[in-house]
Amino acid sequence: DEIPAVIGIFSAFGLVFSVSLFAWICCQRKSSKSSKTPPYKFVHVLKGVDIYPENLNSKKKFGADDKNEEKNKSAMPKNSLHLDLEKRDLNGNFPKATPKFQSSPDLENLSPKLFAERKKDSVSPDSLKSTTSLSSEDKQDKLGTLFFSLEYNFEKKAFVVSIKEARGLPAMDEQSMTSDPYIKMTILPEKKHKVKTRVLRKTLDPAFDETFTFYGIPYSQVQDLILHFMILSFDRFSRDDVIGEVLIPLTGIELSEGRLLMDREIIKRNVRKSSGRGELLISLCYQSTTNTLTVVVLKARHLPKSDVSGLSDPYVKVNLYHAKKRISKKKTHVKKCTPNAVFNELFVFDIPCESLDDISIEFLVLDSDRGSRNEVIGQLTLGSSVEGTGGEHWKEICEYPRRQIAK
Questions:
Q1: Phi, psi angle pair for 401, to nearest 5°
Q2: How crowded is residue 51: how many other Cβ atoms within 10 Å of its Cβ?
Q3: Structural domain spans, the chain
Q4: With 343 labelled, which of 120, 208, 218, 385 sits at a CA distance of 20 to 30 A?
Q5: Highest-confidence segment of 32-36, 207-211, 300-304
Q6: Is the dihedral of CA 18, 23, 24, 30 positive or negative?
Q7: Rounded mean pLDDT of 12-33?
Q8: Is the peptide bond before 352 cis (omega within 30 degrees of 0)?
Q9: Which residues cross the membrane (predicted)?
Q10: Can you tell me the distance from the alpha carbon of 8 to that of 254, in angstroms, rounded to the nearest whole number?
Q11: Across-strand partners of 361?
Q12: Nearby residues of 248 by Cβ (< 8 Å), 6 or more positions away
């Protein structure tokens, strides 16, 4: 009789202990629910943005400046959490704020005196207008100076050109206020010898120090040659910017006494070179119902000589622009060794708007060259803001939709 009584007492104590333990665990779970951290998947979606309130003060927040952080700290309580989820992209990243001004190495090396002078000039708006107008005029008039040397080696019967440096080049990149200059040199009039220097990054006073030797040129023919230096700025995303050019006729220059050091001012590229570049026959049709533009590149004729053999390998690149931003591009096949190329290729472009006022289309006729970069033979633009035949052609396209108009 004593054994069942002892077992009943122990089982009662065990039941009471288990019930009290279960109640204690439930209370602990309820109290810890308020301070529980979010799951790992939510943190992973935010890609490293710290969402815990206790760490917001110590770690750097994304997508905000220091001044905005101080304002947010004063406006929000300590334990509050604020994330602009609407400003994030589909991947959960915050967009990077583009700085209005980028510092360049030239600005970092400015002396305090020059910085003070610039501050004085920027006091009044009138002075700002005057300084900007002067700087624009100086940029247009002065494109820098090119330094080079000429020499003739009688033993090897070779003509030697050394490109030393260029000083005072204009800034072709508006963001960094620098250029990536390089020089192309051609010996005219035959254009048999074409060379170019390496690209020097982010400088307005490039020091090339490169020497080019041309063999097989008799000294008697040197007087009939013309040196053509083309100064360009490299652009990775579009066509290289032309800074200017230098033309040196060698008539009257004596190289028999030795090396001759020379310097010349860089001038604007001669606009007359773009005249007489041939003709391009194109046909366009605008479909107002489907908002599409059909472009047919038919043929080109009377293209200039751009190769040693006297013939070019032309092809046409078609670029569609909306509000000065390129939205689509196409190109034809290359036609070998002909100044009169027949393409007969059709392209269809989707127009993003019903109106054609902000749309323009550009035709670039290029010479394909495997050895070097393709050279532009000529350019043609059609649009509402274009003067001449390009504007007239575009006006007819807008006035007569669903009609193929060729010019």
A1: -70, 160
A2: 13
A3: 144-268, 279-406
A4: 385
A5: 207-211
A6: positive
A7: 80
A8: no
A9: 6-27
A10: 127
A11: 320, 382
A12: 226, 227, 228, 229, 262, 264
Kind of pairing between the strands at 325-331 and 314-322: antiparallel
Closest CA to 243 of 310, 165, 182: 182
- Which pTM does this prediction carry? 0.39
Q: For the sheet containing 207-215, what is the strand order?
A: 207-215, 158-167, 145-153, 260-265
Percent of the chain with pLDDT over 70: 68
Q: Which two tokens stand for residue 404?
A: 């193929």
Q: Average pLDDT for residues 64-79, to the nearest whole number?
A: 46
Of 23-27, 132-136, 322-326, give the range with the top mean pLDDT. 322-326
Dig out the tokens for 354 from the structure: 């019903």
Distance (Å, whole) CA 338 – CA 306: 11
Q: Are strands 260-265 and 145-153 parallel, antiparallel or unpaired?
A: antiparallel
Residue-wise pLDDT tens digits, 352-369? 877 788 899 999 999 887
Residue 52 has a CB neighbour count (10 Å cut-off) of 11
Tokens of 253: 């220059």
**What does the block give as tokens for 210?**
């490169």
Cα angle: 42, vertex 43, 44; to 5 degrees: 90
Rounded CA separation 148/166 (Å): 9
Cα–Cα distances in angstroms (integers) from residue 124 to residues 119, 129, 137, in the given order: 10, 9, 20
Burial class (CB in 10 A: 0-12, 13-18, 19+), 266: buried
Q: How far apart (Å, rounded) are the C-alpha atoms in residues 194 and 309? A: 14
Contact 303, 277 (CB under 8 A): yes
Q: Which two tokens stand for residue 166?
A: 């260029």
Neighbour-count burial of 112, counting CB atoms closer than 10 A to its CB (0-12 exposed, 13-18 middle, 19+ buried): exposed
Out of 162-171, 361-370, 380-389, the most confident range is: 162-171
Q: Is there a contact between 356 and 384 (Cβ–Cβ < 8 Å)? A: yes
